[in-house]
Amino acid sequence: GENVEQHxxxxxxxxxxxxxxxxxxxxxxxxxxxxxxxxxxKRPQLIIDIxxxxxEKKDQRIAVTLNxxxxxxxxxxxETQPEDSAVYFCAATHNNAGNMLTFGGGTRLMVxx
Amino acid sequence: xxxxxxxxKYLFRKEGxxxxxxxxxxxxxxxxxxxxxxxxxxxxxxxxxQIVNDFQKxxxxxxxxxSREKKESFPLTVTSAQKNPTAFYLCASSTREAVGxxxxxxxxxxxxxxx
Lengths: 113, 115
Description:
The complex is a heterodimer.
Chain A: E1 4-7, E2 10-14, E3 19-25, E4 32-38, E5 45-51, E6 56-59, E7 62-67, E8 72-77, E9 86-93, E10 101-103, E11 107-112
Chain B: E1 4-7, E2 10-13, E3 19-25, E4 31-37, E5 43-51, E6 54-57, E7 64-66, E8 76-78, E9 87-94, E10 105-106, E11 110-114
Parallel strand pairs in B: 2-11
Antiparallel strand pairs in B: 1-3, 3-8, 4-5, 4-9, 5-6, 7-8, 9-10, 9-11
């Protein structure tokens, strides 16, 4: 089955700096890669996703890049703000029956004002 | 994700008791999922259902059971066989436009504590 590794597990940046979170996956047939943001005690919220037919997608201060050859994808947050502080999860599909996602272990991002 | 509800928000269980967590969605989604999240950990799949009256085990199904009698509802029972049930339980749902490419939306979660 799919295995997703996420790094780093914690990340501390100064407000205004950029943050990058990286994930690798094992199943070369995976074709959908969402990123979720989870604030303490709340539900995960989808912030951006990318499908395997594109290499990059951007939405305001957030961007995701995908390298299918190397089987890794990354989340980039520019001009970080304190409200960006949360746990971020990457995920990838199983390429078998069903739409099951395999999640990375999460990255706790702390943006210091 | 506002169309997915879970109840109760907090649940306390004594050892040896079965408890059922509710998950309802009004998004007309075919697929529904249950995940478990432990402190500082990622999400692990317990069970999923792609269609009414059908469900499959996820990675950590032991000690749990589900039913899918209605499209809108996917309740999860935590049985006494689950040795360490204290966790945050998240339900999710998605459409089935194409296998492997559907966005999952999450409910607000139920925090279960075993006393």
